[in-house]
Structure formats: C-alpha cells, structure tokens
Amino acid sequence: SLTTAMAASARLLFRGAGLKAYTANVNSGAQSSFGTTLLRLSPNCSSQTKTQIKHASHFTYHPDPVPTMYGPTTKMNLFQSVTSALDNTLASDPTAVIFGEDVAFGGVFRCTVGLRDKYGKDRVFNTPLCEQGIVGFGIGAAAAGATAIAEIQFADYIYPAFDQIVNEAAKYRYRSGNLFDCGNLTIRAPWGCVGHGSLYHSQSPEAFFAHCPGIKIVIPRGPVQCKGLLLSCIEDHNPCIFFEPKILYRAAVEQVPTEAYTIPLSQAEVLQEGSDVTLVAWGTQIHVLREVVSMAQEKLGVSCELIDLQTILPWDTETVCKSVAKTGRLLISHEAPVTGGFAAEISSTVQEECFLNLEAPITRVCGYDTPFPHIFEPFYIPDKWKCFEAVKRLISY
Amino acid sequence: MRRGWDEEGDSSSDDFSDTESDGNFPLVIPQDYLGLAFFSMLCCFWPLGIAAFYLSQKGALRQQPFDSSEEKPQFPGASAEFIDHLEFIQPNVISGIPVYRVMDRAGQIINPSEDPQLSKETVVNFYQKMTLLNTMDRILYESQRQGRISFYMTNYGEEGTHIGSAAALDSKDLVFGQYREAGVLMYRGFPLDLFMAQCYANADDLGKGRQMPVHYGSKDLNFITISSPLATQIPQAAGAAYAAKRENTNRAVICYFGEGAASEGDAHAGFNFSATLECPLIFFCRNNGYAISTPTNEQYRGDGIAARGPGYGMLSIRVDGNDVFAVYNATKEARRRAVAENQPFLIEAMTYRIGHHSTSDDSSAYRSVDEVNYWDKQDHPISRLRHYMTARSWWSEDNERSWRKQSRKTVMEAFEKAEKRHKPHLDLMFTDVYDEMTPNLIRQRESMWRHIQQYKDHYPLDAYAK
Fold first, then answer.
1. Backbone φ, ψ for residue A225 (5° rounding)
2. Mean pLDDT of A352-367
3. Which residues does the UniProt record annotate as the domain Transketolase-like pyrimidine-binding (chain A) (predicted)?
4. What is the average per-residue pLDDT within B169-176?
C-alpha cells in the first residue's frame, strides 16, 4: 500500500542520512524504555536466566513428501496453507465469506493475510467479540446459501458457541426433515499445545464435540493435509469443525499445491506400515509418534504401524480395526486429558471389534486429568518418552 | 496495535509486533499522514511531505485526527462532549418508549392518516387467518388433553402480531421464529394438513416426525424450522440477512422472539452483529408479559426490549401488538428501510399471552383469572379487527356464523385425516444426520432392525409406515 511505500522511503531516508533521531515509540511508550534501563542497571539480573532459555520443541516435524497429483507446488507453512485454501475458495465461490475476530487485518496467526484486500471487505470481515454470535451468524449465513467460514480465535474459546454448534448446527438438517441445513458452514480454530499456552491457549477440545452426531471434526498434521482437508470441509455438505495445530503454523513447512485439491474426510491414513503395534494419533502428536516408531525399531526391534486418524468424527473405524487385527496391540495418544478423551472412544470400539485379536490391553498415552498447565507443560504432554515406554509395556505384556 | 484493513487505506498497515520484520530499526515512523507530513518537511524531504499532507486531509473523514489542542474527547471508542459535573444517566422506566397504535381498543381509527387503508379483501383475509389460527389452536389444545398428540402451544391473544407482521413482508423474506408464530406460517398459506401432520408426527410431516409438535418449518414458504432452544435463531437471522444483502435480491429477514428469550446472550449477540455488519433485518419481539411463569418485572429492569435497540445503534419502535394495523405499518416501514438502508430494525410488539405457556403449564398457578379475562374480553386483536370491519359493514353476524362453522369444519377434517395417517418409516430415524448416511449409522440401523424382528411384539410397529 501507499503508506508502506512512504514509510519505507522515509526509513531509507534516515538510514542514508545516518540520523538517529529520537521519536517516542508509539507502541511501547516511555514505560518500556524505563523497564529496559532498569533491568540493565540491576546487578542481580543476568541477561539470560535459566528459565528464559526457550525449551526445545517436544517433537521434530516430519514433512510429507511432495504431492505430484495436484499440480505445481510451492513452499508453504501451515498458516500459509490455510491462506491458500481460503484464497482458492474465495476465488471460485462468490458466496464464500470469512469472518471472526481480527480476521480483517490478517488474523492473529496470519491465516487470512491479504484476503480482504484481494476479495473485499464484504467478504473478509471482523465480527464483534462474541463466539456464540460468530457461530450463530455463520449458521444463518450457511442456511441462507452462503459458504460461511467462521474463525474462532483459539479452540479454548469455542465453548460459548457450544450451544449453537451442538443444538443448532449439528441438528439443522435432521430436525427440519432436510428442508434446511447448514452444510455450508466451516468453523476453524487454532488447537493444541504451543509450549507456553497454559490453560487457555493449548486446549484440544475435540472430545466434547465427538459426542455430537451431525458435525464433522477434522485435524491435519501438516500443510499439505491442512489445505486438502480444509477444502474438503468447506466443500462438504455438513457443518465441519477444523482444528489447526497452532504449534505447527510456522514450524511445519512443506511443498503444497497452489491449486485447489481435496483430501477425503473420514479416511484415516496409514503413514507407516508395521507388524507389532498400531499407533493412532492426529495433529501434532503424529510427529511425536513418528519418532517413537524409529525409537521402537532401533532400541526394541519393534515394528510399529502409524495411523493418522485425521477425521475425528465420523472416524474411520475400519482402517484402525484392520490394523489392530493384524498387530494385536494398540496405542492411542493425544494431548487432551485421558478421561473421556477421544482415545476412550477408539479404545472401546476396537475392543468390541478386535477383542480376540488383542495381545495386550489397549493403551492410551494422553494428558493428565488436569487443566493444561503453564510451567509444567514439558511434564504434562504425552511426549515421545512416555509413548516409547508404553510401547515397551505393550510388547512385554 | 492493530488496525483493520480498509479499502481507503487511510491507516498505516505497519505492524510493529510483526516478528518477521526486517531488522530492528531505532526510529519509529509516525503512523498518521499528518505526522509523517510534518516529519518529512522537517527533514526537507518535500515530495513525501506534501503527499502525506494531502492524504492526511483526504482521510480526515474516516480517520479521527488526534488533536489534543481541541477541547473534545479524542477517544476512538465514543463520539461525545466533555461534561464537568458528575451525573448518572437515569434510565427512563417510568415513562418509557411510547406504544404506537392505529386503532383504539374498540377498533376505531385514532389518526386517520395512519390507517393503512387496506382493501376489504385484505382485511377480511387478516380476520379469517386470525380466527382460523384460533380455531386450530382450540382443537389441537384439546387433542393434547385427550392424549391424541403429545404437546401443544397456543397463540391466544397474539394473533395480531403474527398476521400484521406477516402481511407486511414479501413472500420471499426469510422468517426465523421461536415457537409462537404459527400465524405467520398460516398467513403465508401453510395448509392445515401440514400443521396437523407435524403435530401428529405422521408420515406427511415435512419434518419427518423428528420434533415435538409446533416445531414447524417450510422451505417453500421461507420459514426456517423452529427449534426449542430459545434465542438461538437471533444471531442466525443476522447471518442470513448478511447473506441476503450480498445476494442483492431485495430480500429481508425477520426474526421473532419473546421478551424472555431477549434475555439470552444470543439475543445480545444477534443485535450487535446485525447493527455492526449492517444487515437488512427486522427483529420482532413479542412482549406478551410472561416467560412461562416469569413476569416481565422479573425478566428485566429496563424499559422493555425496545429501549435496548438504541444501545446497539439500532432504530427501534414499540407498538400495540393487539392492533394488527399498527403491527402492519411498523413492519412494513421497517422492512422497506431495512432493505433500502441495510440496517436492522427492532420492533417490540406489546401484547398478552392469554393462553398457558403450553399444555404442560397451568397458568392459574401464577396469575389471576381476572387478569386473563381482561385481555380476552377488553383488548383482543381479533375483536378489535372485527369492530373495524363491522363499522364498515364488511362483516356481518351471518358472515361470522358461517365462517365459524366453515373454519371449524376444515380444521376438523384435517385433524381427523392426520390422526388416521401412519407414522413415518423407521428408516427415517437414521437419515439426515449428515447429508449421506455414514457406515456407522448403516450398522446401527441394521442392528435396530435385527432387534425389532426378534422382539416385534414389544414395539408398536403397526403405527409406522411399512
């Protein structure tokens, strides 16, 4: 824009002139420079204390191979793959609109950057701060024929919209005898642990919604999956909730097709074949388990079959049961608390279908039954060591 | 600091919290054009300075110029003047927003210029629809008492709000209701057979027997299927109106709710969204004095629902809901302006719920018979309209007698027919959860049939379609 150009030229001017003018920093103001000075002058403060050292990530990101069947690809991280999906949608569907808190300037995670400029303020717009309003509005727009893409700023804040999602969106088609539906509605929300998110920026609420017939719940593991699954959700004629692992927004980078493509819903993907243990997860946890697969092979000589569930509801029971019938052992892992978590549903169904195939009890490696803690996060999450230990126990049962 | 992207581009889009910005620069460029202009001129960079100055003036209308030399609040959050003495604003609850009416309680026009001067045919139709609704209500209420249907809600006393507002809309306008708006559907031509089919949950029910009675819906008549949770339709109506605005087909949306539902968070959400997002929407509140047993003085402390409208920046009016012409006039004008100006309107129709909340309620537990009788006898929308018609010799005693007989007959015919019909096929329990049946539901359906086959004597299979 013109202002950016003007600001850039002004910057250029000052660099060239070697001026070091003082202007009050409009963002931080006087208080911030005061604070910095104070810290520098204090004899007890070292520049970097133990607690300040940033913890390494609990996983290593494993990118998908470059897809070849969807046309040309370009490097994208996860939030860019979301933008790309939304860009494709707004381009091809004139009824599509994107709305939520702060989406207009690009979103707090930059998922909607550039879209308002490109498609107009009537199509990409901010709403007041009200999740029940955002989802209710989305339901109405969808029922009236528009493709409605609602953003909830963090999955942790989706609960005010619970009534609208469960009592309205999920039941719209059924209760009207198929006269009306809100299949055009997709709800997106950042999801999962992020290293420092604590109680209200780390939650994985899929289990609350899994108990609700009529909606679909989808969680991608990386950019290629994200774009394809998001486009499937948008196209799908049922209201969908799409949870985006926020820790992967920048960390996950892959070659992603620039054109639109879809990845089918309710089809779990076997990422690695194995013969001894079936591992099931979704989202970020897939990358944790990838490492567990290698560890199990190297240290225990155990061959693991890794399945990415992708769609939580309706979930692909066939793929999981077929795998457990082969291996006889199942480990399910998610960050959400273990009691009533989605692993419980998978476990229950699998023991019904594969009881006689099981060589060991089904194991769940999940978060503890506490709210998601801040400083204790490294100890809370189901990391690779906990999963590795669980594999060990499964094998030696 | 975040500013919305704006098509006029009058605010700087530099985001200083951007962690990917190139390098750390010690100097902060003024974010507004005017500041940039002075800054540039100070540095003798004239082209930049002049351009910035020009743009600062152009953008002045949208962007508030911050000028502390002016004795006026500069806050972005409100446009106001300063005041130097402490004064709380008194909410006006003694003499609130006045009630607009066209007819007095005896059906006489008060201000002739407000008479919509509708044709005899139109007015007779109003009357017949209100009375047909009343007749259907009596028969279906009674049928629940006799155990023929499971539940019912009557509309006694509120017929004027339904017919007056429905008549003022276009047939393609989308209607979101709560549960006490059957007259709107009746006015639009929903056949008695389908009302009955829904209440009996028989095989003719458009809703496929899935919901309790009075949860009507009609795609053809643009009436969104009713759901039990209160006020959920309010933000939905805002979304539908926004979609209608984008379609640009001169379509409005109306959203009905009671004064009790207006206390829900969803109501606040819907009002705020519709005003902020400029939706062509009419909010129609039926203030009938009670939410089950809760009277209005336990529902709110302010001046009803109409007084909340201005708080959202919404044009609002209070009308006599028992005056079908007042309801008609207000709705008609609100609809015209909502579509022309893309803004929501709030109509609070004052009325009285003469009947019980539902067949599960006995209102003598919380209100006097005298109170109910007053409204039934002294201020009823049906009798007020009848007086208007008889004063013009549009409706005689003979008309009344023969219409009563005819409407009762047609309702009874539909009723008897609905009672005899089968219930929907059992497979319909499993469809429409999603657009297509999932493998899981197919398995569950098969499991159900296997079970039914084995235990068929214990299930009322004969009542259901084969």
1. -65, -40
2. 98
3. 76-251
4. 98
Which residue, among B15, B17, B25, B27, would best test binding to A if mutated, counting the most A CBs under 10 Å from its CB? B27
Mean pLDDT in residue range B91-115: 94
Neighbours of A76 (CB within 10 A): 22
Instruction: Tell me the C-alpha distance between B411 and B124, whole Å.
Output: 19
- In B45-99, alpha helices (H): 46-58
A143 and B1: CB-CB below 8 Å? no
**How high is the ipTM of this complex?**
0.90
Structure tokens at B386: 């009848």
User: What are the two backbone dihedrals, phi and then psi, of residue B155, each rounded to the nearest 5 degrees?
Assistant: -120, 20
Phi-psi region of A194 (alpha: psi -120 to 50; beta: other; left: phi over 0): alpha
For domain A73-257, give the CATH superfamily. Thiamin diphosphate (ThDP)-binding fold, Pyr/PP domains (3.40.50.970)
Structure tokens at A89: 């949608």
Fold matches, A73-257 and A269-396: yes
Q: What is the pLDDT of residue B41?
A: 55
Contact B6 A97 (CB under 8 A): no
Domain locations along chain A: 73-257, 269-396
Q: Percent of chain A beyond pLDDT 70?
A: 89
How far are the Cα atoms of A392, B30, B43, B394 from residue B38, in angstroms, in the given order?
71, 10, 9, 77
pLDDT for the residue numbered A33: 77
Shortest distance between the Cα of B33 and any Cα of chain A, in A, equals 8
β-strands A148-151, A185-191: how paired?
Answer: parallel
Q: Give the CATH fold of the A269-396 domain.
A: Rossmann fold (3.40.50)
Asked if B455 and B447 touch (Cβ cutoff 8 Å), the reply is: no
CB contact under 8 A, B217 and A95: no
